[in-house]
Protein: FAD-NAD(P)-binding
Organism: Amycolatopsis xylanica
Amino acid sequence: MTAGEFCLAIVGGGPRSTYALERLSATIDRLGGRRLAVHVYDDGGDFGAGQVHSASQPFTSYLNRAAHQVGFAADPSVTDAEPIRDDRPTLYDWCRERFATTGDTTFDLEPADAPKRHQHGQALREMFDAYAGELRGKGVSVVLHAEEVTDLVPADGRWEVVSASGSHHTADQVLLITGHSSNDYSDEDGPGEYLAFARRTGAVYMPSAYPLQEALSLEDPRPGSTVGCAGLGLTAIDQILYLTEGRGGQFLLDDDRLRYQASGSEPAMILAFSPSGVFPYTRPINRKDRPHQGRFLTKTAIDKIRKSSGTDAGDDRPRLDFDAHVMPLILLEMAYLHYRTLFGPVAGDLIVESVHEDYERFLTLPIEPGEVERLLPGVEAVVATLPKQLVPEPMLKRFDWRTILAPIDTSAGMTRSEFRLTYLDFLRRDLDWAVQGNVANSFKASVDGVWRDLRGVLSHAVDGGGLTADSHRRFLEYHRRCQNKVSGGAAPEVMAKILALAEHGVLDLSAGPRAKIAFSDRSFVLHGPVTGLNAELDVLLDARVHAFDPARDIRPLYRNLIGRDVVRLWRNTTPGQADFVPGFLDLDERSRPVGHGSITVLGPAAAARGTYQFSALRPDNNDVVMREIVAWLHGFWAALDHRRLP
Ligand SMILES: Cc1cc2nc3c(=O)[nH]c(=O)nc-3n(C[C@H](O)[C@H](O)[C@H](O)COP(=O)(O)OP(=O)(O)OC[C@H]3O[C@@H](n4cnc5c(N)ncnc54)[C@H](O)[C@@H]3O)c2cc1C
């Protein structure tokens, strides 16, 4: 560091580093004649894209967002973000431009198409370089370190940024945007047992999914093998497509449906399984101009319930119980949207009128224990009077939360083949509904309008210790999974491929619900208690994204910061309940460790303050991801002004 120079260290070179450089360069005239150095650290050297969106990842991994809904810069919708740059391409614009200049048809996208993650990575890298170039043009020194930061050591009011190679740089301000990491689960039930079994017997277990090309080579798992995939989320989809299409298999268009043509290099069978036994629902095509505004599930309603029914925790924020206080509002909002979509706005008005008294009572009187569907009788009363024969046949006629959560009824038992056929029917129907979109299809409209559009209201209920300790634990362990299942799925073009693989048979989903791993002498065995499946596996893949957990993180940075009391773990403390310590960091309202205003932490490590901040930037949406960067930037300039450097 040069004398008199102010130094910013950015740890993590993912998308947030691009957004941070964008804001910094847009406001760099504030620097005046002062000198600034920006040091960016990324252990993979993927500056601007990071590991998740790396440009070098396989072509088979999709971005879970329509191309026109991905931005790179602050826009006028973002609170307090002035000045805004005029040139703000979306990922769609960037892909069109790339197609025009290269003729490469993989960039020939429509606005609503799901781009590939490597394409997003290329665009991010280009934007990052452009913003870094702008900063350099204004005399700022931008230095990139392809290194892992392992510690921050206090040094005379500044920080020594220590990296794995042992290098040290002094920083005045540190922005920690390290994103998702991987954990060492060797001491945990499940993964720990699998690792121990694999070590003992030579059975093959792959505990980490990413980077895909490192975890799964083209020969391993070997062609013709039987692979178990523990998970049915987006990570499993990445793995499944990489092991099939990534090994030369092709999807051919046959009568409007995709058909999979194997290459012979893929596994003979990929048995994918999870506790629910089903993939997340297909994400509907977005046909809305603007997000749904809550009619019942609103911040005002949450505030009223907090006052009337919250548990006093000795501060000004009585705690809510998500099941008792929030779920009934969620289901009411979903049912309202569902039937308004099916029967039109007049039916919606009738429902509002019919539930009015129950709803007001729910908000203002102490809430007794009850079913999550407790606010639905007023809805059902209206629906009973409506002409259901007018509803087009492929629509889901009745709103039923329990069926949504468990779409395949296995209560009477099912053979493997029955489950497979029923599930294939379900996948086909769900895909059709997703193509109908989030406005015309009643089921998709209700799920998308509530679990996606009203995430801000859910944050208002949950974040910063909004729930009791017990309820917060259940929210993270159960409700977030339900949310991912119903609204966090992949785009129709991706699920069309999954359907084609399942129809072909290389993807086998017949394990059914509650499938478990058992052990034979030398291999893992997948057991499906409902369908009776028992299959020996050559390889078991773990297909989950690891939650932020400094105690288990394979990188030592946060463990070291906790060890030297720079930051501590956040606790949810509720009288009469055991404290809940989910592993997130304890940060102030500006996302800084208490007592250390020169460090800002954003992303998964800061999830106690923000449940839904882990996605690519969405333009024209006052996106919280950019609002946080803007808030950090204001603090950054204030700190620099305060230093009064020459
Ligand atoms: C597998 C996966 C798929 C996803 N897909 C999507 C999607 O399709 N759409 C979407 O909107 N969101 C997706 N997300 C969410 C994702 O969190 C955000 O899109 C985005 O990547 C967040 O950006 P970030 O910069 O905060 O973190 P990241 O993208 O995680 O980047 C952080 C970077 O910091 C590096 N790093 C970490 N620790 C250190 C250290 N100590 N020293 C140096 N470098 C370090 C990491 O290697 C990484 O390159 C996905 C997440 C995962 C895990």
User: Anything to note?
Assistant: The chain has a mean pLDDT of 94. The chain has 18 helices and 18 strands. The radius of gyration is 25 Å.
